[in-house]
């Protein structure tokens, strides 16, 4: 049986088409679907409208960037990409909710998931306060 000659058609191989579709849909690009609920919201600090500013350094190593705000006790600690102080804080205290001052995302260590801070009503005022501190204006209305 003779080998088939390569096709000269202009359509991409099926494998390339699948990769393109995955890229368009977000797979493999780091796209994460944030959760719209969390069982740990009852651990939020009662005073989250008075937040430390986004330029607050890590309380343990004084790192000035990539910091997270613990939403249970309001301590500012560095990310896992720096000295892992927020992760250690979670492991030592059980505090599981944190807001990134880099991109204002909210992470639940217990759920191991990002939370949609614009959809979850308990998180919306926190996100808005952090946004105003970081950008000096109110955030755009969420696209529902």
From TrEMBL:
Q: What's the superkingdom here? A: Eukaryota
Q: Which InterPro entries match?
A: Znf_UBP
Q: Which GO terms describe its molecular function?
A: zinc ion binding
The UBP-type domain extends over 36-137
Q: Which UniProt keywords apply?
A: Metal-binding, Zinc, Zinc-finger
* Name this protein carries in UniProt: Zinc finger UBP-type
The family database entries (PROSITE patterns) matched by this protein are listed as: ZF_UBP
